[in-house]
Design goal:
Length: about 130
């Protein structure tokens, strides 16, 4: 599990979630005693190394990273909500207002430059004058 690294347990992207679920399923077979220990250890090591390989490739190849992790989607800019992107992300106006209250402690779009749905599924808000 330590070989897998911290990223696999942060579950930022769907691939990390799948790896953690698969790793848990494989390791549970050894805990219960359904399968022999060494084949389970080999399967777990294979999953962990595959995860590390995908992470390494993602760092060195931006196209692969975009395929593996996705890309951010613009939800709000220039005083306008992008309704088509909201629908694509399955987010509604109330979700955006909730994030405004939680992240920047305000109820309106005053001083807000852009809002994104990040590749990991979180909504990020950029205030006017903030670096992009």
């Amino acid at each position: 599990i330590r070989i897998s690294g911290r990223r696999s347990f942060s579950m930022k992207y769907s691939f990390e979630s799948v790896i953690v679920i698969l790793l848990g399923a494989v390791l549970s077979r050894g805990v219960v005693g359904v399968s022999p220990f060494f084949p389970i250890l080999g399967a777990s090591l294979t999953l962990v190394l595959l995860h590390r390989l995908f992470g390494w490739i993602s760092i060195h190849n931006k196209s692969f990273k975009r395929i593996n992790e996705g890309k951010k989607i613009l939800l709000y800019s220039d005083g306008e909500m992008h309704m088509d992107n909201l629908k694509k992300c399955l987010v509604d106006y109330e979700d955006i207002l909730e994030q405004l209250r939680c992240q920047v402690q305000q109820n309106d779009f005053h001083n807000i430059d852009t809002i994104y749905m990040e590749a990991g599924g979180k909504i990020s808000i950029v205030k006017n004058g903030s670096k992009r």
